[in-house]
Amino acid sequence: MNTTSQDTNSAEAGQVAIPVDDAALGTFSRDQALRLSADMRRRWFRLRRVKHAELLRVARHLDQLIDPYNDTKIISIIGPTGIGKTTLATGIFTQMANRYEAQRKPHEVPVVYVSAPANGEQSMSWKTLYRRILATAGEEHLDLQRQITLHDGEMRSVRPDRMSLAHLREVLEAVIRYRNIRVIVIDEVMHLLRFQDNLAIMDTLKSLADIHDTKLVLIGTYQIAPLMIEYGQLARRSAILHYRRYAIPQKSNPAKLTEDQSDFKAAVARLQAQWPCVEVPQLESAWEDLMRVSLGSVGLLKSQLLELASLQMTHAGVLQASDLANAIKPPKQLRQIETEILMGEQELAGACYGDAASGSEAAFKQLFAKLTGAAP
To answer: What are the structural domains of the chain?
Structure first.
């Protein structure tokens, strides 16, 4: 363990929580965070966004696909459960908002981020989704709007909560154009799949993307892979970004690490540098073991380390073996998660952005050689 000259208990007890919001707390350095209460340090560590190679790759490819001059309308970001898609989504929103900020007019909302509803209804609630998009786009007084209908020759207003889906859709289309919404990010897209036919869902999403110069970014687990792969009408105008875990080789060579191993080890080092307790466990020396118990997923590792740090704080900052046993996922759960990951990886093989060379590597190299003038 690494310790400083400061007494371990002084960072673990007698602290007063500082009332800061997440945005402010996220700017704190580790030294500043260590002066906070245990609860605030847990929150601070949860907010830490660990940049690593795979996260940066997905963000870079997304930036390419978001370009308004390409023909891609629907982009899906698919990855295993627990890999950190919500963290990725937050970063994506900030990245895209910054992209459009310079040319944004005061009334415009270039980027909208919502989560697909999971409200227990027996069918997908498009009304709920549309309302969420409208509210996020700044239509705060939607409930004051009234749909007008004719009844026995008289004009009557309809209560906002009884607006027809068609009318709500008309309002949404008008708002997308007026607010000049360029990107709609829909997280937790697997909730769209419940109780409904994939074809109907994709038809609706495609029509949403066709309203304006708008792109849809759909984020979800491997459950949404068939939604994107099987819908032929979208093949020309869609792209799949696979947010992958880091591959764990069957046999490891300590003298020559794979690229994935090096990248994962670097992510572990960054997490160790942000540890929210004075006493710091030697994570980097155990990176191979941590890679196995997290299945190569930095997001899954982060959630387990957050639990480990929380348990360490309950023992005056001294890590105990029981803390590690309680923080690491049990083998049966890991096997279940790994089974789902393997099936998802197989489903997406050869279907993702950048996979063109995987079909025929020799043919791809020959084409590239011709385009660059290197062919004989």
So the answer is: 8-47+251-329 (no CATH), 53-242 (3.40.50.300)
